[in-house]
Amino acid sequence: MSTCISAIRHLRPLRGGAQSHLLKAPDGGCYVTKFQNNPQHIRVLANEMLANLALALGLPMPRVEVIEVSGWLIEQTEDRAEQVDAHTIWRCAADIPEEWYEGDRDGLDRLVQALHQRRGAIRNLIIEFRRSSRNPFSNWRESPADSAMPLVASDRIA
To answer: Is the pLDDT at 105 greater than 90, yes or no?
Structure first.
């Protein structure tokens, strides 16, 4: 399959287990993009592509496309986790039902503080994990500027 769409701008990360990101393409469309190294499994992408069968059956849904994400775009996109402030982490933590942390408000407070303090170590932790024997990011290249990131499947959302 040949790539006909290239991402030109990272807009924001999205919620969900596949850790999708919203990307903009030259056609003006915005795409919910799932990467090959998503935590759910590479097969998620095959499932997404097979969803085009629904279009063939006449069902109304977005068309699934393949997008190329260049090394340049990856390098130019800021690593937002390193800059997140405590207020943003608290906004997310406030949505956690109290029974999920068993009413331990002090424990939740310690967790939020720890997340905020550790945000500066994220880049090095990811690099160390990538170099582990588990090879979690098998398609990662040492120098993204030298070659393009692997293809990703995406849903166009107008």
So the answer is: yes
